[in-house]
Amino acid sequence: MVSRRRWWLLIGIGVVLLWAGIAVAAASVLKQPDTAAPAPAPAPASASPVAPASAAPTGEPMSITPAGIGPALLNGAVAPLVTAGLFSKGDAAMCDTTLSGSGALADVAAYTDPGGTIVEQLWIHSPKLTTRTGVHVGSSEAELKKAYGSALRLFQAKENPYVRAYFLDEGGNSVVFLVPDGGDGIDKILVMSTALGEASVRNLEGFC
Prior knowledge:
Blueprint: H1 4-31, E1 63-65, E2 68-69, E3 72-73, H2 79-83, E4 87-89, E5 98-101, E6 108-112, E7 119-124, E8 130-131, H3 141-148, E9 152-155, E10 163-170, E11 173-180, E12 188-193, H4 194-202
Parallel strand pairs: 1-8
Antiparallel strand pairs: 1-2, 2-3, 4-5, 5-6, 6-7, 7-12, 9-10, 10-11, 11-12
């Protein structure tokens, strides 16, 4: 028969073991790593709208340049110009290779190649058509020089001393401003290759 003293000793030992077990379990729980919920994946960025490409130019304005006038370009096809009503065959007295302008190109004559398919020269008589600096038939010689300065090249042919020709050269082509001798205003403006322009100044009767 267990004595009362031993009985209380066994109870004390059991209580100590119980509390030791509780302490170990608590420590185990405290040492477990935090298991925080994973951060939500970032929402996909919305695609930026693509800006539409800028519209292509609708066409060259009706300015006189070394390349031509608007859609009437040196070495350009004649057929689209005729279809658009900008040029047509003139009267029977004109050369077979000459077309008369109409509408925006009224008072402009176009000389073509012998086959009548390619524009080779443009002769402008209309004061309504201007260069990009505003020079036109009827502008004074002083206005011409002020607009272009040293970019102008004076060409005077000994075969034709009755006209002063000012060339604005670019890429093998030229705008030629003709000022009659004794006059102060531009009488005609030609657009053609530089070599053909010099030949035209020597012979202002045109070509057929």
